[in-house]
Design goal:
Layout: H1 2-24, E1 41-42, E2 55-56, E3 62-63, E4 77-83, E5 93-102, E6 106-108, H2 113-116, E7 123-125, E8 137-138, E9 143-154, E10 158-162, E11 166-171, E12 174-179, E13 183-187, H3 214-241, H4 255-267, H5 277-296, H6 305-314, H7 322-337, H8 344-359, E14 363-364, E15 375-376
Antiparallel strand pairs: 1-4, 2-3, 4-5, 5-9, 6-11, 7-9, 8-9, 10-13, 11-12, 14-15
Helix pairs in contact: 4-5, 4-8, 5-7, 5-8, 6-7, 7-8
Length: 379
Amino acid sequence: MKRRTLVALALCAMPGLARAQSDAAVDAPAVSDGSVSDVFVSDASGDASGDAAPVTTAAGELTVCAPDPLPADRAPTVQVTIGPEQPRVGDRVVITYRFRYRAQDRVEFEPDVVAFQQPAIEMDYAREQPERERGSRPADSGWVTTDVSVAVQPFKVADVSIVSLPARVTTGDEIARICTPPVRFRVRSVFGNVSHPAPRDVSPPAEVRFGATTLRTAALALDGVFAVALTTLLAAGWWKRRPRAVVPPPPPRHPYLVAREALDALAHGDLLTRGHTKDYYDAISDVMRRYFGGMRGFDAIEMTSGEVLAQIRKSPLPGVTFVEVERLLAECDLVKFAGYVPSHEEADEILRAAASIVERGRPVVQPGQGTSPPTEAAS
């Protein structure tokens, strides 16, 4: 009950104390060394190594953080650092509050966004905030530390002052309030930070030796070699992929010429002398089938004899009777499939019959046409 009465009296006295200190702070100049932010260490009793007086915010409101009294052996401490130490306009400044407290206690601190947004000096609360530390790290003798970081971004050369912020510490069955120290730092310009800079002395000429340019020359030479090699590779690739004129294939040879050459090769061959009569008749059948198909435009090799004769019946060969073709194919099939062994005279006769049929399809070259496409001999 006594403690609650004292807290109530302190809260009632705050407005008058704030107005008095505000009037006293109107003509007081801001203190800042312009280089590194002041580092404050505060405990629960309210003592601080920095300035513990109330701080005026950018909005002109005076904020006073009154800590609750705690014994010295249980009082947490708060240390504040900033990074970079000498921030410039546009830098992302990270303000880190490090709480040191007993391992069995618990500290809760939620930074007030309003305290970090100061439109008068164009300082914003950064959109990307550092990741919040979830646990604690051991310090010494049963104490632990926890870091809470806040990122701001100033866009104007100014002296930044962030007020003390309240935090809450839970010590078993008691909850007390502690205060962070105020933060002050100067935001420097990205250009020059001296009002009237003095000109510097012109440095004396430096000696440049011959060896100093050797590496530069070698590097330029290697660059030139690389450029030439790259250009050569690109040109060679383009030359291989360039569109080329398609050479037309040679015109197909006349079936008469192909069949005549094949029959002449069989006549001068040794299939009969070696006893390969079946192969001999098979070769004659293939030659004549290719001749028939070439003359009338169908694939006779894959057809049966009946199918070939049906095509010949539809489109007869000039000067060749259907009976001749039928007899030729029948004799070849008799030897190939029926196992008939003909005499040498019969073998010579089948070759002469095939040559006679082919000879009657000899192309006729008209005078003056040279090697123009031949025409079939008239029947």
